[in-house]
Recover the amino acids of this structure.
């Protein structure tokens, strides 16, 4: 077991009352799982993903990561966990526009204050692994959408995280590119034993899951606990 | 890669934006540096010039301005040369010495120089020159009771700089100040052509740090003829006995010299000191304005940059960048902008001072290198102060709020 959620509640205050974005959500993720989170728009998928490592603070509930509670620890400690143990992939790629492919992939290593030489070596290795070694000096805008998402994946794994959080990683890609990305994620999951939690509303993507959560109006409809 | 390198890459990739970000602060620093470079020289010069002038009364044409002593005689209106005669033949006592002079800005080749016509001692029993010129003379000094304000000292008396009477300055001879000699590459015994007339440079004056350094002196009659302003002078410097001054020498002179402005050096000094004090106040006001305008302008620039980079800040925080890192990113950028603004402002201001100084204040302005340090410090302080709030807000962003998909 790598990650566990117990009775997670997240409420948003609105003019027209309180919204229960997450309503007593409980689940368990085991090491090496490929978790898919599905559900209609507004069902709380992104909120769940962001709340797991403190990017959104919970209203109530516990989150246990590698045996320790992390829902009640300081922002600084959560930041440190994200830096060392988690990789994020977003629908919009979120690459830094003025950095080259290589530099973008080096960012997580820079945050960990790894030496420059080592940064280049490891980033280049990952780009090679992901098939982009001929695009190292390109800026994001000089890459296709599929290539940009591969750079984002490279960036999310370069620091050898134990978990990858992906929020609709194929949402901006056409079906062929989506498959390519999904295959990469599967490869990462299987070859590197990195646990993946992926939000998606595509049935094809959901098919890659070894563990499936389905949310509706903030509640888990299909899942475990 | 490091955060510093990231900041440099970002700066470089968006360098065209820098111009707008730096404009206000650069111009502000430039204005202060220009004013300061001019007024520091001007201040030293006032005291030095006046303490060593040797004269204590100035007779100027009615229209001449005395707001700035240095320009008071250059290109000013003139008064008749006869007035010298008139004073000499009058019954007024207490005039120990007189030096009529005519000053005009002229072109020598491409360069603009100040040409002053003076009368040597052999032609009128008085005329200023300089001890070290080799042309010996007796120091001109008014017998003054102590405490007389007419030629109050400013602590800048220097025996070496004291003007002394010159015995001879022949037609076709001229004497060059040290700065102008350097500028025009003059040397003694070499001829120079001024307004089409050949002059022999008989002497290069040693550097005095006064307005004399930037002037060429020639015989008054030559200068009058060359300029076509015969029998006119721009000023008469008078050495008046101080007791006579308190006995109303000034008004007696005014009575026999119509359409003139007869004033003591003391008055000119206080006017000049007022001008300098005004400049100091202007500088202070400028400083305050620049602090706010420059600070707000840089702050605005950084704030625009923060907004443009919201997603980047979000993803960095998501990946585990601490608030500190965000602070570092933007304050480092502000620091670099501050340094650049300080250097550019110093260069621009110094250039303006050096180029405009001779025209506006009639003085040679040298770069004051210590101002580079002050410019950078000031600019960095303004830049950092202006960037604090936007940077604080950037670090406070919720990481996720900037990443939500639409
Ligand atoms: N910052 C927020 N403030 C208020 N309500 C929010 C905020 N973020 C999300 N919500 C609400 O919470 C619910 C879940 O949102 P989200 O997790 O983004 O859904 P999903 O990712 O499944 O589409 C929605 O009703 C949404 O309107
Ligand atoms: Mg979502």
């Amino acid at each position: 077991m790598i990650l566990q959620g117990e009775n997670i509640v997240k409420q948003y205050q609105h003019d027209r009352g309180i919204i229960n974005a997450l309503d007593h959500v409980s689940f368990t993720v085991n090491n090496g799982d490929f978790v898919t989170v599905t559900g209609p728009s507004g069902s709380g998928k992104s909120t769940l993903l962001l709340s797991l490592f403190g990017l959104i603070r919970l209203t109530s509930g516990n989150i246990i990561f590698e045996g320790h509670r992390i829902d009640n620890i300081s922002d600084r400690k959560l930041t440190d966990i994200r830096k060392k143990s988690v990789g994020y992939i977003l629908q919009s790629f979120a690459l830094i526009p003025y950095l080259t492919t290589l530099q973008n992939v080096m960012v997580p290593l820079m945050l960990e204050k790894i030496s420059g030489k080592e940064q280049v070596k490891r980033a280049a290795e990952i780009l090679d692994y992901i098939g982009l070694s001929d695009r190292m000096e390109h800026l994001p805008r000089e890459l296709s959408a599929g290539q940009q998402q591969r750079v984002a994946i490279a960036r999310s794994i370069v620091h050898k995280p134990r978990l990858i959080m992906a929020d609709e990683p194929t949402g901006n890609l056409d079906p062929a590119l989506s498959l390519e990305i999904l295959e990469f994620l599967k490869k990462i999951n299987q070859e590197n034993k990195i646990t993946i939690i992926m939000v998606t509303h595509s049935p094809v993507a959901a098919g890659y899951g070894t563990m499936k959560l389905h949310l509706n109006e903030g509640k888990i409809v299909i899942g475990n606990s | 890669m490091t955060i510093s390198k990231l900041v440099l890459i970002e700066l470089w990739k968006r360098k065209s934006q820098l111009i707008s970000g730096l404009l206000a602060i650069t111009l502000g620093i430039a204005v202060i540096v220009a004013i300061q470079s001019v007024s520091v020289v001007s201040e030293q010069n006032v005291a030095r010039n006046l303490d060593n002038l040797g004269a204590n009364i100035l007779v100027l044409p009615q229209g001449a301005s005395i707001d700035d002593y240095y320009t008071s005689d250059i290109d000013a209106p003139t008064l008749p040369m006869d007035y010298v005669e008139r004073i000499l033949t009058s019954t007024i006592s207490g005039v120990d010495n007189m030096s009529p002079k005519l000053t005009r800005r002229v072109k020598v080749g491409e360069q603009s120089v100040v040409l002053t016509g003076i009368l040597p001692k052999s032609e009128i029993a008085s005329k200023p020159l300089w001890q070290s010129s080799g042309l010996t003379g007796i120091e001109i000094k008014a017998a003054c009771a102590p405490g007389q304000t007419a030629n109050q000292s400013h602590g800048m008396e220097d025996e070496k700089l004291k003007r002394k009477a010159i015995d001879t300055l022949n037609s076709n001879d001229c004497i060059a100040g040290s700065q102008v000699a350097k500028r025009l590459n003059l040397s003694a015994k070499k001829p120079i052509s001024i307004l089409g007339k050949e002059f022999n440079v008989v002497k290069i004056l040693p550097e005095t740090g006064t307005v004399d350094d930037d002037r060429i002196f020639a015989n008054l009659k030559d200068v009058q003829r060359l300029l076509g302003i015969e029998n006119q002078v721009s000023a008469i410097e008078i050495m008046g006995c101080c007791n006579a001054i308190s006995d109303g020498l000034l008004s007696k002179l005014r009575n026999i010299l119509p359409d003139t402005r007869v004033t003591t050096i003391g008055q000119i000094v206080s006017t000049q000191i007022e001008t300098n004090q005004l400049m100091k106040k202007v500088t202070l006001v400028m400083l305050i304005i620049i602090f706010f305008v420059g600070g707000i302008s840089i702050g605005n620039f950084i704030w625009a940059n923060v907004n443009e980079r919201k997603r980047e800040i979000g993803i960095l925080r998501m990946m585990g960048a601490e608030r500190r890192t965000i602070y570092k990113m933007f304050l480092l950028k502000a620091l670099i902008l501050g340094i650049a603004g300080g250097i550019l402002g110093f260069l621009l201001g110094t250039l303006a001072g050096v180029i405009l100084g001779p025209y506006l204040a009639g003085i040679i302005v040298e770069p004051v290198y210590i101002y580079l340090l002050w410019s950078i410090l000031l600019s960095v302080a303004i830049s950092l102060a202006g960037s604090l709030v936007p940077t604080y807000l950037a670090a406070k962003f919720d990481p996720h709020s900037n990443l939500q998909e639409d």
Remarks:
- Residues 125-151 of chain B have pLDDT under 50 and may be disordered.
- Residues 265-308 of chain B form the longest helix (44 residues).
- The two ends of chain B are 31 Å apart (CA to CA).
